[in-house]
Amino acid sequence: MALPDQATQDYLTATFKSSLKSPTKIPVLDLGGGKSVSGVCSIAKHLQRTSKDFTGLNLEERMEVEQWIEYASATVKFVDSESERLVLKELNNWLKDKAFFVANKLTVADVIMFYNLYSAFAERLTFQEKELFIHLSRWFHNVQQDNKVRQSLQHLTFLRTPVYDGVRVH
Amino acid sequence: MKVFTDPGNFQTPKIEIAAQLTNTKLELVTVKHNEFIAPFSSSSKLPVLEVKEGVHLFSPNTAAKYLFLKANKIQDEDAENAFLDWECSQLLPPMAAYLLGQGRKDQTVTKSLAAALQHLDSSLAKTKYLTGETVSVSDICVFCTLAPLLGQKNCDLLRERVNVQRWCQEMSNNAVVKPVLDNFTASATAQEDFKASLSSQTFTNVSAPSNREKPAVEKSSPSKSCVASEDQVSTYQCLFRYKNRGFYPLSPTLNADNARQELWYSPLSPTLNTDNARQESCLPKSNARNILVTSALPYVNNVPHLGNIIGCVLSGDVFSRFARLRNYNVLYVSGTDEYGTATETKAMEEGVTPQEICDKFNKLHNQIYRWFNIDFDMFGRTTTKQQTKIAQDIFWKLYERGFILKDSIDQLKCTKCDKFLADRFVEGQCPLCSFDDARGDQCDGCGKLLNAIDLINPKCKMCKGSPIIVNSQHLFVDLPKLEPMLKSHLDSVFDSGTWTHNARVITNSWIRDGLKPRCISRDLKWGTPVPLEGYQDKVFYVWFDAPIGYLSITANYTDQWERWWKNPEQVEMYNFLGKDNVPFHSVIFPSCLLGTNDGYSVVNNMVATEYLNYEDTKFSKSRNTGVFGDQAETTGIPADVYRFYLLYLRPESQDTAFSWDDFMLKNNSELLNNLGNFINRALTFLFNIFGGEIQEMVLSEDDKRLVALVTKELQTYVNNLEACRLRDGIRNILMISKLGNQFMQANKPWVLAKGSPEENFFLFQPSPLFQKIEASLIAELKEKFAGKPEQKAPKKQADKSTPAAVNLTPASQEEIDRLTKAVADQKQADKSTPAAVNLTPASQEEIDRLTKAVADQGDKVREMKKAKAEPAKVAEEVATLLQLKKDLSLAQGLDPNAKVNGDAGKDKKKAGGGNKGGKGADQGTGKKDNQAKQQKQQGKTTKVAAGGGDIDQALVERLTKAVSEQGDKVRQVKAAKAEKSTIDAEVASLLQLKRELAVAQGLDPEVVVGGGGKKNKKK
């Protein structure tokens, strides 16, 4: 299983314990009473709506969280490096004046996005590129401080001082 | 609230209907297709619902649901989410692709769509609407996406899905839905708007149906007829075929014998040609695909740089090697373009004849391309008798057929030098911005393009004399007259051939702007003489002349050259070139050839690259920025590594940049850790445990799944290379070895090796599994490895031109070492580092002695630093300290470079960790890992040195202290035999501190702490 899916599932399992099952690749959350929610996207939305860890959002904000969850699980599945750049650029722009994706607090959107971006940051982006997407990097670094979110994933390193400033001018 | 939408967007009704059902007042704002509404986005995401200032919902489903939630009209949000998420992940992507007409080409699309409809049908079996007995937001969102299908004639996708049909009927007659959809189709331009909107939006790619649609997959009947010819089978079909035939693990039954046979022998057909022997002279054959590959002729008086190499010669090489392996009949020609002003001037500067200059540089080019392993059938030159003969013949034919015009132009002539001045040999004041030092073709001050005769006070660049304006008679090719012929040729080849996007765009823009007569003569001496009377003191312009070089070079290769060049029925021509050369190859040269009416082979396929930059600036000979062919050789990095990296970042659809940092990184992460690792492991096991004999194999379910996945990659690889997407091809190869690595990781043969004989029997599954792929090498491998395999490790010769891993030529471990060292030397000139490290631990006394020496020396350095001693002296002591550490590492049997440059000498514990994972069967990997680190680290160190002064000394000291304290703590807990978890926690925080320290020091933290992340993945 690819890293984002695995990490997302680990997180959801840690959150919901035994009520989360994954008979196939798709996780299913048992709500009791014959009801269930299946699929990462829907479970994530359910989590945002019901968990006491993520309270305090108004309806508009919650909708924003939901659309970023959709974005993370659809658009961030990179097909090639060029579309990856495009998405990273977009997210970087979005975070230009924000600490988190929505409402300046950690939401499920941040969590799901974090897993979907993890392998890009861990494996593909060079220090120079991390510096290029500086807002996204800042957000990423911020989110990874949360041990519950990061789980057993390696803590990634970000340079504190920009070193490529001069190069980019050309 | 406002909705921003482009006209004809079929997702917008979702929001409109939702608004009406919830009595929400909605203002519809029509914008252009592709317009960005949310300020952050880099792609258009219409429709967008503006909830309030600054809050945009660009997901139509979320927008619709929001309206419902606000009106308190949702009972069970989870149930709605289930359908909404399904709609946007499973239904919309294949639907969009289908509506865009991709269903005709790609079976995946229709299959996915059918699977989605099947799911919908069963969902509607029990209830009237999706989530109950009333219309919900899910019904609206799903229906709006499905609606365009209802209007289609001959669409059998809905046939037999009775529940869907019933539901569609209900929905389309709904009192709210109907008017909105009627309105959607009412406008006169509705159909066009719909199409334009559809193609302007980005949709998620269609993925193969997931397990959720499993019933649908099993239902579809196995049919061989749906499989197109081997080459055209899409990757999905390929996999799907296996599913249908029962090879894929999804399927319950399985015929093992057939499965293996089919899997083993079908995907690689047609039989690969691994016979490298070339015929004496290659001529078109009637029973084969005849492919004529040309690479743009490099201009002779420049040493080619890496951008030139990937732009044409290397790309052509890779494609022609691939084509040869596919058993096509290939001729690959190129050569140096030698005529022209620049050569003449260069010769004058060096005081030799132009011919001598050309001889010298032709030799240099030859050497460089030979070093890069560019496998030309013929690398010739344009200064030959054949060139004159063929160029003049083409000219006469054009002249006789009335395609040559005569006209006069004003030119600058230097009376002192007695020659007409080419644009770039005139200097003067810019007529536009009055910049003093403008060149004849362009002003460096304002950057505008100029006409040389417009310069104020023009000066001859050579003698500084003032040139005069002379009116001179010249010959022109009448391109407007040739245009219809050219157009009809282009129309047919654009349709049938492979033309890169840029080649099409540039060609089209030339034709759209209208072709003008093009001057083909020049007042020079160094060139192909114009044979026409009255013009005999002139030569042909290089851009008329140079492409004819392809013909004359072929003519020098074989006297039957016309069988290639006057044989358009049998010969397919591929031109490889940089985008700046496109118009000459796609407009001027084809026009000339077509104008002769001589039945020439004219280009069918044009593969143009964008530019390769160097560390974010341009390659420039004059400023000596970049890596040039001859320098590449002196770095000592094998040509294949360059080839790999250049192909990895081949500028296919946008400019890319060569960067040393990334070069190291990709070499280590992809070539060594991925590909090299895979081959090394497979072969090490094969030889260590089975003496190099491939064992009898029994394929398990998992094995077959792997084979199916590899086959899928291989198929994509072949498709990619057929379409000249060389860069994507590399990704496929790396994917195959990644799959191999994962497989090996999952099966852990090094564990099985210690097990019972029965287990042992299954042990070598991974290797025979790849027998097919590496088959051509087995004999060679045995020869090289039999006897002392443990001393050698194979390395991939980065020859990406061959399908998948076929051409894996093993090389020695020493070669890897040499590369490592060479890169290091090049970046750091650190000759003192022994490249091949002897990893044998020394005696304990020696280690103790050195440990103490390191500690003492460390103290000394710290004291000096504290006392603010002279930097030079400190540096001296630090050097001693580093040397001691190296000695210590060697004595401990570790790679010194992996740790020495780290921190102040307390990382002994951790450095050991890097090798723990590498013990036993994994030894080869561990060793390689260290080298990878060594390389990487040296690259980084250089970078920091160049970047300079960013190191915060106070922070470094604080962190150094913290590291040292934490180190003591770790030692204490270990000594106290504390619980493992406690120790781990302390070690983790030590590592984190070290990482921070490294970052503060400007070093690569992963190297310092022993490659944490990478290492974890290995295990």
Account of the protein in words:
The complex is a heterodimer of chains A (about 170) and B (about 1000). In chain A, helix 2 runs antiparallel to helix 3 and helix 5 packs across helix 7 (about 135-145). The model of chain A is unreliable at about 165-170 (pLDDT under 50). Chain A has a 3-stranded antiparallel β-sheet. Chain A is mainly α and about 170 residues long. Chain A contains 9 helices and 3 strands. Chain A has helices at about 5-15, 40-50, 60-75, 80-95, 110-125, 125-130, 135-145, 145-150, 165-170, and strands at about 20, 30, 35-40. Chain A has one domain (about 5-150): Glutathione S-transferase Yfyf (Class Pi), Chain A, domain 2. The longest helix of chain A is centred in the C-terminal third of the chain and has 17 residues, at about 110-125. Chain B is of the alpha/beta class. Among the domains of chain B are: about 1-200, Glutathione S-transferase Yfyf (Class Pi), Chain A, domain 2; about 845-1000, no CATH class. Chain B has 39 helices and 20 strands. Chain B has a 5-stranded parallel β-sheet, with helices on both faces. Chain B is globular and about 90 Å long. The chains are: A mainly alpha (about 170), B alpha/beta (about 1000). Chains A and B meet through strand 3, helix 2, helix 3 and helix 4 of A and helix 2, helix 3, helix 24, helix 35 and helix 37 of B. Chain B: It is found in: Cytoplasm. Chain B: Pfam families: GST_C, GST_N_5, tRNA-synt_1g, WHEP-TRS. Chain B: One of its GO terms (biological process) is methionyl-tRNA aminoacylation.
Keywords:
heterodimer, A: 170 residues, mainly alpha, Glutathione S-transferase Yfyf (Class Pi), Chain A, domain 2, three-stranded antiparallel sheet, 9 helices, 3 strands, disordered C terminus, B: 1019 residues, alpha/beta, five-stranded parallel sheet, four-stranded mixed sheet, 39 helices, globular, Arc1-like_N (chain A), Glutathione-S-Trfase_C-like (chain A), translation elongation factor activity (chain A), EEF1E1 (chain A)
